[in-house]
Write a structure and sequence with these properties.
Blueprint: E1 2-7, H1 11-22, E2 27-33, H2 38-45, E3 49-53, H3 61-68, E4 76-81, H4 89-94, E5 99-102, H5 107-118, E6 123-124, H6 130-137, H7 143-150, H8 154-164, H9 169-176, H10 180-194, H11 199-209
Parallel strand pairs: 1-2, 1-3, 3-4, 4-5, 5-6
Helix pairs in contact: 8-10, 8-11, 9-10
Length: 223
């Protein structure tokens, strides 16, 4: 079972998301709360995935992300917003979120997104325009990033390329014929070498440096 926690300041939104996710046989919503109690509830329930609203009046999603940063065990975080050009998106991904979802995401896509994030992948809603990706998150390949990529071992380079395609750890393992534990070690090594917090940032560097194809936000979900 994938254990999910929902953080949103609107009770109606929390209830709706809970109903959608609980309809999936392999997903359990273990808690739903607002930003004020988010970290406390994460510590209590230890969810695998956190769906986190960015815009909340008392404690917003960015604050929750920063408060979670020191925690020894953190859930995979997909941020939620009503806007596809939210100015907080880049900051949220930079703070460790591994996905970006709009609140009008179709139910089946939301379920798919939760499963993907839980499996170690990343998700970007198709409604996130290339302007958001290019304008907020990418300023072109930096010399330091190019040097770090060139210093990688051949296997690390392969793993980075597949991260650039948005593949989960399980998918990377199948492509490279590696065990899940080995893939996890390689992914951690790649993130350390690049000096980034999560696989989304690594994927963007892979794209900028030319290791992989650009993330496609127009034809479907980035897995």
């Amino acid at each position: 079972m994938v254990r999910v926690m929902i953080v949103d300041d609107e009770a109606l939104i929390r209830s709706g998301l809970t109903l959608i996710l609980q309809s999936a046989p392999d997903i359990e919503v273990v808690a739903s709360t607002d930003g004020v109690r988010a970290v406390e509830e994460v510590r209590r329930h230890h969810p695998d995935v956190l769906l986190l609203d960015l815009r909340m009046p008392e404690v917003d999603g960015l604050t929750v992300l920063h408060r979670l940063a020191p925690e020894p065990v953190r859930p995979a975080v997909a941020v939620l917003t009503t806007f596809d050009a939210d100015e907080f998106v880049a900051r949220a991904l930079g703070a460790g979120a591994v996905g970006f979802l709009l609140k009008d995401t179709e139910p089946e896509q939301l379920v798919h997104a939760v499963r993907t994030v839980a499996a170690g992948g990343s998700v970007l809603s198709p409604a996130v325009t290339r302007t958001v990706i290019d304008g907020y998150l990418s300023g072109g390949a930096r010399p330091d990033d190019i040097a770090r990529v060139r210093a990688m071992s051949p296997r690390e380079h392969e793993v980075l390329a597949l991260l650039g395609e948005g593949l989960s750890n399980a998918d990377i393992g199948r492509r490279l014929h590696l065990s899940p534990a080995t893939v996890k070690d390689y992914v951690s090594a790649v993130l350390d070498r690049l000096g980034v917090a999560n696989r989304v940032q690594a994927a963007l560097i892979a794209r900028d440096v030319g290791v992989s194809a650009p993330v496609d936000v127009t034809s479907g979900w980035a897995r």
